[in-house]
Amino acid sequence: MMAIAWPTVGLTHEVPGSLWPMVAALGVLPLIWLRVAPFLGWIAWVIPAAIIPLVFPPLPPGTGPTVESVSPGVGIPQTSDLTTSAEGFPWQISAFIVLLALLIAVGVTETPERVGLTFLGTAFLFLAHLPSGMAPGWVFGAAAFLGLGLLLRGLFRSRREAAEQAQRAEEQTRRAEVEAARAILAEERTRIARDLHDVVAHRMSLVVVQAQSAQYRLDGVTPEVAAEFESVAGQAREALNEVRAMLGVLRSEDHAPEQAPQPGTEDVLRLLRSTSEAGVELSWSVTGETEPGSSTAMVLFRVLQESLANASRHAPGAPVRVDVDYGDEVRVRVASGPGHGHPRDTSGSGGHGIPGMSARAASVGGTLRAGPAGDGGWLVEATLPARAGAVG
Length: 392
Description:
By secondary structure, this protein is α+β, with helices and mostly antiparallel strands.
């Protein structure tokens, strides 16, 4: 715009040649505020626009210099007069275009108060400087350009709100998909729990019934055999209770901590006695009076349960010694004598075995070590904090 305004200042106003750049700049440089501060740009335009026509009067029609006198040697005939289109207009056309652009920008970005002030200031300027026949039309024109800006503002706002609404709808859809996936997972967990209950729990219940009724259904059952059947029934009942408890966990993940079994010190003693009664050559020592927290008690029970099961499975007939100390820390030591072999890694047993025991101990801040003993047997030692958070 400056490239157009500078050479044509002398065509529209009585301005000394040395002041052409300044006058041209006052009309077009406010355009730099078009995007960042259009109201400030309008102020920067309207103040010099009110002064320039008073200091540098517009040239009457037909009195401006010709193109030849402004740019000698261009080759345009001297009769080509460019002032006929201006006809006493108080501002350069390039500067007036800048004003119209600023009016639109004010309507798009500024507050209603500033839009109203812009209209009043522009209308006053037009009425003061435009020829009487042109002023009313351009006042309505200023209102139209401001209205165009307001219309564009509404369109931009609608597009922005539509984009935000689409984003909210996408988030709601995503949440709905997550909830649907959770519902499907919960339904699948419930189905698995139901199937397990129908198959496993039912079969184990039959084992309990058959073991308890064997001494009455069969002839010649000695007291020793009857005691064995009763032991089998007791073990099956305990396993059945644990299966039912774990099925409860599987049915409802949200209530897993409340439904999961939480063995205590009495359960540890019961486990030791039942293992001994099942035929394992087991001796034990339980010392200390500190009551461990539920998380520690759970880990202690599972470590003992897994260690005793491994001893029975991998070294049948070997003597087993268990030492449990309930102190500031809960210490457990399971030593089994030499047998046919001991597992170096039982990680394939469904997540139990040595890695499973180590993970359980670490979950409450404890440690576990398992490895060969000096006599050729197997040794498991665990140290657990007496109090710990819930098992993760």
